UniProtKB/TrEMBL annotation:
This is TRAP transporter small permease protein. It comes from Sulfitobacter aestuarii. It is a multi-pass membrane protein. The complex comprises the extracytoplasmic solute receptor protein and the two transmembrane proteins. The chain crosses the membrane at residues 21-40, 52-69, 90-111, 139-160. Residues 26-159 form the Tripartite ATP-independent periplasmic transporters DctQ component domain. Part of the tripartite ATP-independent periplasmic (TRAP) transport system. The keyword Cell inner membrane applies. Keywords: Cell inner membrane, Cell membrane, Membrane, Transmembrane, Transmembrane helix, Transport. It holds the Pfam family DctQ.
Length: 164
């Protein structure tokens, strides 16, 4: 039974290992953009947009891992001083009534836009930009799915094994 949560955790760990290098690459590309523009007078809209694409990919696909390692934003007015049992109840409530419903709603409402974007293979954001907005929009459902899966994994651990 614990194999499913372990698989989901592993999926988000592998995803994080694959995308973590985007942070470094994004900084290097941004540095090259600045040097190119101010030193050599060269500019490329597509290269500038690539930083946006890398940033979006890093954060959208890395969110499930962030949830897994408990480094997400938490409003801990009550949580920090609560007992472990109360923290567990707060976590269960948060997953069931806040996180999962919001991800399902976001997935539901974003899907038509993503589907339409793929249907027309939506082009660049700016003239001369990357001709793949459909890929950028696909990050939204991918984000939702990774968060939903990780939330279910954490819920299973909280409910069945009483661990985090």
């Amino acid at each position: 039974m614990q194999a499913i949560p372990d698989f989901i955790d592993g999926l988000n760990r592998v995803t994080a290992k694959l995308i973590r290098w985007l942070a470094l690459f994004m900084v290097l590309v941004q540095f090259a953009i600045v040097v190119g523009r101010y030193v050599f007078g060269v500019n490329s809209i597509a290269v500038q947009e690539s930083v946006l694409y890398m940033h979006a990919t890093l954060f959208m696909l890395g969110a499930g891992y962030t949830l897994l390692v408990d480094r997400h934003v938490r409003v801990d007015v009550f949580y920090a001083k609560a007992s472990p049992a109360t923290q567990r109840r707060i976590d269960i409530f948060g997953h069931l009534f806040l996180l999962l419903p919001s991800m399902v709603v976001l997935l539901y409402w974003s899907w038509p836009s993503v589907r339409n974007s793929w249907r027309i293979l939506e082009g660049p954001i700016s003239v001369g930009g990357i001709e793949a907005v459909f890929l950028l929009k696909t990050l939204i459902p991918a984000f939702c799915i990774l968060i939903i899966l990780q939330s279910l994994s954490l819920l299973a651990r909280l409910v069945f094994w009483k661990t985090r």
